[in-house]
Amino acid sequence: MRIRDILDRKQTFSLEIFPPKGDFSVETAKGLADQIMAQTQPDWISVTFSAGGSGNSQNTIAISSQIAQSEAQTTSLAHLTCLGSSKKDVDAYAAACEEQGVQNILALRGDHAPGREVIDFEYASDLVAYLKETHPQICVGGACYPEGHVESADLDEDIRNLKKKVDAGVDFLVTQLFFNNEDFYRFRDRCNRARIKVPIVVGIMPFTSTKQIQRMAFNCGASIPAKVIKRLVAAGDDLDAQRRAGTEYACEQLEDLAKNGVDGLHIYSMNKPQVAADTHDCLVSCGYLKA
Ligand code: FAD
User: Fold this and answer.
1) Ligand 1 centroid to 111 CA: how many Å?
2) How far is residue 118's CA from residue 264's CA, in Å, rounded to a whole number?
3) Among 16, 117, 182, 255, which one carries the catalytic annotation?
């Protein structure tokens, strides 16, 4: 199903997983997706494409297709980055998605790195425009940044660039993770003022340890509020207490977002079924999801 059609009908609950890398096999990834689907019945699952420069993009479509063709026929969203890709590469990717029952692509630029230079696309908006022109039946999502993208001079510039992506035809947006909901509410107001009208799905990552949140904050430029630092200081070196602090904090964020009305909630599950199940349960408790 096209994600925009689901978003036009209801508030969604979705999850992100990443495809196999290292000793994590395709079979394990399929098993993980099955487990998550059975536990949480998400509206859709997104599958990353070489996120963080991991190079694990070759199985993105295979895993997305397995999700779409599973017994539950859960909608899937295959990520695609355009740095280092030619128009021919994008055509092949989109055609493979269509052949394998994947109707949604998250069109991203990716991060600059050796081997990821500009070929035919400089920005995500170029990829969005190309996909809309050449594969109009594919539903195309894009990324957005409540605290601004790390390369942007300021939030105004970032919103002006985001508007270009929306004007290129993006069907919906998914936010980068953030730890302070006020940043998202301010961002949503700015989008309204800029006449950005597409649905904005909110991405939340329950942190699993002090080390992990530090790495994520550095990688995506998300700021860590003092209230999170206090909880992690209280957890000390106890890894289980750090994980519990992350789950509790994410659930508080999600409940507040649910109360304030959002188009959709998307969980960066980090391939951890427990994270998916915990966030699902808290959204059932607060009435956002049905039991
Ligand atoms: P863009 O929208 O192109 O923006 C990049 C920068 O350029 C921004 O600073 C923007 O303000 C600026 N800009 C945009 N258009 C213009 C213009 N016309 N003129 C001047 N400046 C402009 N990375 C992966 O490698 N794999 C993944 O699977 C992946 N999944 C992600 C999922 C989500 C929901 C998010 C939020 C990010 C994801 N990323 C992933 C990270 C993403 O690739 C990086 O954040 C990347 O640096 C920017 O990608 P973008 O699509 O937002 O780029």
Assistant:
1) 7
2) 32
3) 16
What 3-state class would DSSP assign to 271? coil
* pTM given for the model: 0.97
| Res 58: pLDDT | 83
Exposure string for 213-235, b = 16+ CB within 10 A, e = fewer: beebbeebbbebeeebeebbeeb
What is the three-class DSSP state of 80? Answer: strand
Tell me which residues of the chain have a pLDDT lower than 50: none
DSSP strand E in the chain: where? 12-17, 44-47, 75-81, 104-108, 139-144, 172-175, 200-204, 264-268
pLDDT value for 20: 77
39 three-class SS: helix
Known catalytic membership, residue 16: yes
- What integer pLDDT is reported at residue 51 of this predicted model? 72
Q: Which two tokens stand for residue 208?
A: 């699993």
Q: By alpha-carbon position, which residue is closest to atom 11 of ligand 1? A: 158
Please, where are the H alpha helices in 153-209?
Answer: 155-167, 181-193
**Angstrom distances, CA of residue 179 to CA of 19, 68, 147:** 25, 31, 10
Which residue's CA lies nearest to atom 1 of ligand 1?
Answer: 124
- Distance (angstroms) between ligand 1 centre and the Cα of 176 equals 10
Q: Which atom of ligand 1 is nearest to the CA of 107?
A: 51
Give the pLDDT confidence score for residue 54 in this predicted structure: 61
Whole-number Å distance between alpha carbons of 32 and 13: 18
Alpha-carbon distance of 284 to 290, in angstroms, equals 6
Of 108, 170, 184, best ligand 1 pocket probe by most atoms within 8 Å of the beta carbon: 108
